[in-house]
DNA sequence: TCGCGGCATTGCCTTTTCTCGATATCGGAA
DNA sequence: TTCCGATATCGAGAAAAGGCAATGCCGCGA
């Protein structure tokens, strides 16, 4: 994809939108919102995809900064990053504000 | 991509996130927010991609319901759909609310 | 230290997305 | 009607994303 001139904020916003632009990742985020936090195994049970797939989606969410993972013995515990959600919401609010309907 | 069990609202939210998960489309939305509305040619001049590419991105945005196009003589005039933006914002707000930080 | 449970990585394949040249369409001016 | 400017659509190639089996890694209990 050809590079589009954009600010860091724009690139950051697009990255966050990308992270949520997938049904499985969106459900992971929703689960984490409801549970507060949970280990990978819980998500694998809940979702209709294989474990490596869940792990891969968690990697995408992690690199986008939407979730954080911590080591808990043999398990990995994931939770949402409130700052990332706020950044995302503000990106939309800025567009709504400029559009001044 | 394997189908993931989800509500209509979830699918709708993912669809909207998808529409904004691309640098070119994000800039189109920003431009429309600033200008209020504009014709395709203005976007083609402003963006570093070819005319068919801009047209294609507009189609994606249109099918996602984020923008609306009207015929203006030989031109097509596009503008944002405020309802879609509100839907998007509310999707994030619901997640933030459930996460109750 | 051996084995096992819990996740991450790798390798490979399939599907989707992105892009653009070429071409079709369409309204309006001549 | 004929041409032209403005967009949409088509077709194809390249790149990225998504999925999973196999495998690697790691911490912990036996």
Give a short synopsis of this structure.
The structure is a homodimer of 101-residue chains. Chain A is α+β, with helices and mostly antiparallel strands and 101 residues long.
- Given helix and strand content, the structural type of chain A is alpha+beta
CATH architecture of chain A: Orthogonal Bundle
Total number of helical segments of chain A?
5
Order of helices and strands of chain A: HHEHHEEH
Largest interface (CB < 8 Å): A-B, 41 and 41 residues
Large-scale geometry of chain A? elongated
Strand content of chain A: 5-15%
Q: Catalogue the unreliable spans of chain A.
A: none
Question: Can you describe this structure?
Answer:
The structure is a homodimer of 101-residue chains. Chain A is an alpha+beta fold. Chain A has a single domain, classed as Winged helix-like DNA-binding domain superfamily/Winged helix DNA-binding domain (Arc Repressor Mutant, subunit A, Orthogonal Bundle), CATH 1.10.10.10. Chain A is built from five helices and three strands. In chain A, strands 1-3-2 form a three-stranded antiparallel beta sheet. In chain A, a hairpin with a 2-residue loop joins strand 2 and strand 3. Chain A is elongated, with a radius of gyration of 15 Å. At the A-B interface, helix 1, helix 2 and helix 5 of A face helix 1, helix 2 and helix 5 of B. Chain A binds a DNA duplex (30 and 30 nucleotides) through helix 3 and helix 4.
């Amino acid at each position: 994809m050809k590079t589009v001139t954009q600010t860091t904020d724009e690139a950051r916003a697009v990255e966050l939108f990308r992270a949520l632009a997938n049904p499985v990742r969106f459900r992971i985020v929703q689960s984490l919102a409801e549970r507060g936090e949970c280990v990978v195994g819980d998500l694998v049970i809940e979702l209709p995809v294989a474990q490596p797939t869940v792990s891969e989606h968690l990697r995408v969410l992690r690199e986008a900064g939407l979730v954080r993972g911590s080591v808990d013995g043999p398990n990995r515990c994931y939770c949402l990053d409130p700052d990332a959600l706020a950044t995302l919401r503000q990106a939309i609010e800025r567009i709504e504000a400029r559009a001044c309907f």
